[in-house]
Amino acid sequence: MQSLENLVTLLETTAVVSTIFQYLSGALICRKYIAKKSTGDSSGFPFICGFLSCSYWVHYGMLSNEHSVVLVNCVGVTLFLIYTLIYYVFTVNKNAYVKLFLFVLTALFGIVFYINTIPEPAQAQNFMGIVCLIVTVTFFAAPLANLLHVIRVKNSESMPFPLIVMSFLVSVQWLIYGIIISDTFIQLPNFLGCVLSLVQLGLFVCYPPKSFSGQGYKLVDQSVVF
Questions:
Q1: Helix 141-153 and helix 184-206: axis angle, to 10°?
Q2: Which of 20, 158, 200, 219 has CA atoms 20 to 30 A from the CA of 28?
Q3: Per the domain annotation, does 219 fall within a domain?
Q4: Three-state SS annotation for 211-222
Q5: pLDDT in the model for residue 45
Q6: Distance CA 133, CA 135 (A)
Q7: Is the residue at 224 inside a domain?
Q8: Treating both helix axes as pointing N-terminal to C-terminal, what angle do 161-180 and 2-23 enclose, rounded to 10 degrees?
Q9: Residue 22's CB: how many other CB atoms inside 10 A?
């Protein structure tokens, strides 16, 4: 029993730390925005979606009394909000970006308000878990679209190899943690994250990058799976 508790503590610590490092990849993107004083043709949707996803996971962690989930996603909310603000400063499509962010805030507060009307804590937790699962899975859209591009051009240089490896390691840790604590809502998205990361890594073998001078390392298009 003691060894299991030690394993859970170790997984919590390593998963939280590695996830925060994964979130910090957004700082590399924002540094490019600041240096160029422009966001170019990149999308700011992942930042807003990350903010929404982490916000929902904070509430799920509070409902399920999982302090590690609350902690890591509080950090995520803060970082993604900063990234969102930086993107707003340097994008030329400010009106569209503000509308998107307001829509996300409406969705966030709407779900939180509804959760507070559910009398049964277990029912509220399950509903919040489903919402978190749906939002997290939407993160898979960007890398899935990129997979089709890689297969079409037979070149994996547009995929961020270090971040994919990090995503795989993070997903594995949270998957094991979810299995140990028997939490399906933590298990499922991270299982899918593991599969997606393995598929992407497999493409590096099938279609080795010809160079890293093209679209390589477009980190903003890589999903963050919690």
A1: 20
A2: 200
A3: no
A4: CCCCCCCCHHHC
A5: 85
A6: 6
A7: no
A8: 150
A9: 21
Q: From 132, 134, 11, 160, select the one nearest 73 (Cα to Cα).
A: 132
Cβ pair 73, 186 in contact under 8 A: no
Q: What's the whole-model pTM score?
A: 0.85
pLDDT at 211: 58
Confidence at residue 216, expressed as pLDDT on a 0 to 100 scale:
42
One-letter identity of residue 1: M
Q: Using an 8 Å Cβ cutoff, are 83 and 47 in contact?
A: yes
User: To 5 degrees, how large is the angle CA 42–CA 17–CA 115?
Assistant: 75
Contact of 54 with 73, CB cutoff 8 Å: yes
d(CA 41, CA 177): 38
Is residue 220 included in any domain, yes or no? no
Q: How far apart are CA 107 and CA 110, in angstroms?
A: 5
| DSSP string across 158-215 | TS-HHHHHHHHHHHHHHHHHHHHTT-HHHHHHHHHHHHHHHHHHHHHHHS--S-SSSS
In this prediction, residue 141 carries a pLDDT of: 65
Domain that holds residue 8: 1-206
Amino acid, single-letter form, for residue 171: S
Which stretches of the chain score pLDDT less than 50? 212-225
The verdict on residue 218 lying in a domain is no
